[in-house]
Amino acid sequence: MNSTNLSDSEQHLLIEKLQLFKIQGKDKQGRKVLRIVGKLFPARRLVSVECLNKYLEEKIFPRLGKKPFSVVYIHTDVQRGENFPGISTLRSIYEAIPSNVKDNLEAVYFVHPGLQSRLFLATFGRFLFTGGLYSKLKYVSRVECLWEHVKRNEIEIPEFVYDHDEEMEYRPMMDFGLESDHPRGYCGPIVDSPVAMYSMRCIS
After folding, report:
1. DSSP character for 181?
2. 3 within a domain of the structure (yes/no)
3. What count of other Cβ atoms lies within 10 Å of the Cβ of residue 73?
4. How much is the average pLDDT of 166-194?
5. For residue 21, which of 78, 76, 79, 63 has the smallest C-alpha distance?
6. Domain of residue 56, residue span
7. Res 186: pLDDT
8. Do the domain assignments include residue 114?
9. Does residue 1 form part of some domain?
10. Given a cut of 70, is residue 198 above it in pLDDT?
11. Exposed, middle or buried: residue 116 (CB in 10 Å: 0-12, 13-18, 19+)?
12. Cβ atoms < 10 Å from Cβ of 63
């Protein structure tokens, strides 16, 4: 059932304009990359799940072809009340993906996961998503760590994602979801060694 006042063509145009889904570049394994920016998800009152699925079926899946691919999902600044579509919506989208496309999905790089996302997926991920999706999930705490998996300069990363990385330099506990969103005083590095700090940043 369509819960929006926009026509299907208007919804498709909105998804296209937002560049929510974009195929660009390759990862270090030579696989095509489907980039998804969570913050750009339109409100559910504007775009229906059915239209999202139809857009993927018509515009994205054919371009992936029949070869293995990976997904870079950017979770930066996703807010439950604004641009988070909800677990049930994400599950509906995933379950609507044709089996041959699911089989070709080999890795999901989850950029800037919060503590709540990690806990939820660790608890319910195996049950909510079929086809072994949870086992393909790799958490990426910083953009610099993404380049260990994806070819640098072949994928566009929005500026606000780099801004979030920069903020974490001054609030390192944000890496682990232990700080609130309320401004606080400077929180110094918890590890002195640059090498140790880098390795902790990139833990997946």
Report:
1. S
2. no
3. 19
4. 48
5. 63
6. 8-201
7. 30
8. yes
9. no
10. no
11. exposed
12. 11
